[in-house]
Amino acid sequence: MSYGPAILEIVEVSREHLTAEQIFLKMKEKGSGVVLATVYNNLARLHQQGRIRRICVDGFPERYDRTARHDHLVCRRCGSLADVCFPDLTELLQSRTEEKLLNYDLQVSYLCPACRKALTED
Amino acid sequence: MSYGPAILEIVEVSREHLTAEQIFLKMKEKGSGVVLATVYNNLARLHQQGRIRRICVDGFPERYDRTARHDHLVCRRCGSLADVCFPDLTELLQSRTEEKLLNYDLQVSYLCPACRKALTED
DNA sequence: CTCTCTTCTTAGAATCAATCTAATTTTAAA
DNA sequence: TTTAAAATTAGATTGATTCTAAGAAGAGAG
Predict the structure, then answer these.
(1) Alpha carbons B8 and A89: distance in angstroms, whole number
(2) Are residues B87 and A86, on separate chains, in Cβ contact within 8 Å?
(3) CA of B45 to C1' of C1 (A)
(4) Which residues in chain A are closer than 8 Å to B46, comparing Cβ atoms?
C-alpha cells in the first residue's frame, strides 16, 4: 500500500497548512480507509526525511507544509497562518556564528484581517 | 500571595529556558507550597501581558524565556536551546509587507556540541 | 472595621494531540 | 517458497496543559 505518496501530495498541493487530523479527513473524503495513526506515522517519516515541514505554534496542533522556502505570518489571535516570502537569511545568519547552521524557521506574528476587524468592532 | 513576581524572577534570572514543571520544582526547592496549576496560570498571564516569552519547539514542552531581544539555536537532535543574537530584523521584515507586524520568532536549527560528538562516535 | 467585588489559588478531573503496543498484513529479498 | 523487513491497524496510553468549582486573600468604599 504505502500511503506516503498520497499524504505527501496533499501536503504539497493544498496550501492550507493542514493538521494530521485534517489530512486524515481529506484522505477519507477521497475514499481511503486509512487510519489516523498511519497518517501520523507517515507524516513523521516524511518530516524526518526532510520532505515536509512541520509548523509548531504554541497552543495549536502541529501543521504540515511543503518545504519550498517561505516564511509565515501567524495571527496572534486565532493562530491562522499566511505564507509570506522574506529574503533568504541563510548567509546572513551563518556569517554571525561559528556553529554550523542547518536551517531556520521564521514566524512573524500579526493580526489577520478577520481578527483585526473583529477587534475594532468591540 | 501572588506568585507572579517570584515566577517572573525565575524566568528572567535563570537563563535556562525552563518548562512550567521545572519552574514549579524550583519554587518548591525554595520552600514554596505553590501548586503546578498556579505556575501554569501565572505563566499564561505573564505571557499574555508580554512580560515573558514562550518558546515552542515541536516535540518538547513549552519553555519560558525573558523578553530581551535575542534568537535561539535549537538542537535538531536533543531539542536543547542556545541563545544567540542575530541582527534585529524588524525593519527589514516590515519593509516587505503591508501587514502590520507585531514581533517575530527566529529559530535556527543546528547540532549542539554534545550531539555532534555523540553522532560522530557512531 | 465589615461588606462587597475581584483576583488568586487549589485539588482534582478532564482534554486531546500524539505516541505506543502488539498483532497483522504487505512488500521485498534470497 | 521462507525469511526478513516495512507498513498498517485497533486500541490503549501518555503527558502537557487546561478546566471546574470551591475556597482564600486582597483592595476599596462606606
Answers:
(1) 33
(2) no
(3) 33
(4) none
Say whether B83 sits in a helix, a strand or coil: strand
Which residue out of B104, B107, B109 would a mutagenesis test of the A interface target, given it has the greatest number of A Cβ atoms within 10 Å?
B104
Query: Tens of pLDDT along A65-92?
Result: 999 999 999 999 999 999 999 999 999 9
Residue B36 CA to residue A106 CA, distance in Å, equals: 31
CA distance B102 to chain A (A): 5
Q: Given an 8 Å threshold on Cβ–Cβ distance, is A86 in contact with B93?
A: yes
Choose which CATH entry (3.40.50.300, 3.40.190.10, 3.40.50.2300, 1.10.10.10) describes domain B1-67: 1.10.10.10
Note whether B55 and B67 are within 8 A (CB): no
CA angle B54, B57, B62 (to 5 degrees): 40
pLDDT given for residue A1 in this prediction = 63
CATH superfamily of A69-122: Ferric-uptake regulator, C-terminal dimerisarion domain (3.30.1490.190)
What confidence tier does A38 reach under pLDDT thresholds 50, 70, 90?
Answer: very high
Query: A91 at the B interface (CB within 8 A)?
Result: no
